Amino acid sequence: MSNIELKSRVYKELESADDYLLEEILGLINIESTHNEIVKIPDYYKEALDKSISQIK
To answer: How many domains does the chain have?
Structure first.
């Protein structure tokens, strides 16, 4: 199925979707859009991890 056909099917389903389904779909979209986001670890966590690693060695 092509991209255009998939979008057409999604649009048709969205037209009759209830609020619950729409919220679930938005949740999935948000998860996917933040999936590639880089998470910054605070310095104090990095320091604690470094300390733990040195203790293991």
So the answer is: 1
